[in-house]
Amino acid sequence: MAKLKTIKIQSKNLRKIREEKGLTRLEVSLRARGIYQTSMTSEGLRRWEEEGYPIPKPILALFALAEGLDVDIMDIIKIVPA
Q1: Confidence (pLDDT) at 54
Q2: pLDDT digits (tens, 9 = 90+) for 33-75
Q3: What mean pLDDT comes out for the span 16-33?
Q4: Rounded to whole angstroms, how far apart are CA atoms 60 and 75?
Q5: Could you tell me which residues come within 8 angstroms of residue 23 by beta carbon, excluding any fewer than 6 positions away?
Q6: SS3 for 41?
Q7: What is the CATH number of the domain that holds 60?
Q8: How many structural domains does the chain have?
Q9: Is pTM beyond 0.85 here?
Q10: Which domain holds residue 56?
Q11: What angle do CA 78, 43, 15 make, to 5 degrees?
Q12: Distances (CA, A) of 70 to 3, 15, 36
């Protein structure tokens, strides 16, 4: 039986990418909301950057975040064995 894998947010990469692009948390969350109509907030983004927690239940939020930052999703997540 194959082991399930876990998706983890790479908090340091997330913050680094956002800061390199000169974006605020609010700008990224608004971009993400506009793309996928997610309920992403700047506070949620702060928690991801600082704590890597919580992983969003709807996986679309991760795709929205990647598009809001204009990066590949693999730049902000890491898949690890469970």
Answers
A1: 54
A2: 766 555 667 777 787 777 665 555 567 778 888 888 889 988 9
A3: 86
A4: 16
A5: 69
A6: coil
A7: 1.10.260.40
A8: 1
A9: no
A10: 5-81
A11: 40
A12: 31, 13, 14
